[in-house]
């Protein structure tokens, strides 16, 4: 699946990933390939991204995540 992490200032990450874990407002959750469509608000916390290159962690300060058709977009207030 494809992931973009975007802040008002810049695009922080863009690329193919195997999983994304985010700090949702009602608890953390993980999205994998073919996950159901979802939109959720995010709280301050860690976004964990797994890809063929390994695992990366981004510290976000709130925002929104959307997953639709194996594309994940995270709009974060800051990273």
Please provide a written account of the structure.
The chain is mostly beta strands and 79 residues long. The protein has a single domain (2-76), classed as ATP Synthase, domain 1, CATH 2.60.15. The protein is 0% helix and 68% strand. It is built from no helices and nine strands. It has strands at residues 2-6, 11-16, 19-24, 27-32, 38-42, 45-51, 54-60, 63-68, 71-76. The chain has a five-stranded mixed sheet, with no helix packed on it. It has a four-stranded antiparallel sheet with strand order 4-3-6-7, with no helix packed on it. It is globular and about 25 Å long. The model has no long low-confidence stretch (mean pLDDT 95).
Write the layout of secondary structure elements.
Blueprint: E1 2-6, E2 11-16, E3 19-24, E4 27-32, E5 38-42, E6 45-51, E7 54-60, E8 63-68, E9 71-76
Parallel strand pairs: 1-9
Antiparallel strand pairs: 1-2, 3-4, 3-6, 5-8, 6-7, 8-9
CATH superfamily: F0F1 ATP synthase delta/epsilon subunit, N-terminal
Please give the CATH architecture: Sandwich
Write the CATH fold name.
Answer: ATP Synthase, domain 1
What would CATH call the class?
Answer: Mainly Beta
State the domain count: 1
Helix content bin: under 10%
Q: What percentage of amino acids are in beta strands?
A: over 45%
User: Which class best fits the helix and strand makeup?
Assistant: mainly beta
**Anisotropy-based shape:** globular
Q: Give the biggest sheet.
A: 5 strands, mixed
Number of strands: 9
Determine Rg (CA atoms, Å). Answer: 11 Å
Q: Which blocks of ≥5 consecutive residues have pLDDT under 50?
A: none
Number of helices: 0
Distance from first to last alpha carbon: 21 Å
Average pLDDT figure: 95
* Sequence of secondary-structure elements: EEEEEEEEE
């Amino acid at each position: 699946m494809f992931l973009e992490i975007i802040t008002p200032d810049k695009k922080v990450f863009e690329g193919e990933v195997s999983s994304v874990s985010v700090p949702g407002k009602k608890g953390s959750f993980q999205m994998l390939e073919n996950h159901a469509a979802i939109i959720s608000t995010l709280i301050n916390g860690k976004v964990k991204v797994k890809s063929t290159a390994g695992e990366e962690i981004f510290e976000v300060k709130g925002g929104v995540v959307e997953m639709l058709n194996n594309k994940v977009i995270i709009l974060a207030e800051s990273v």
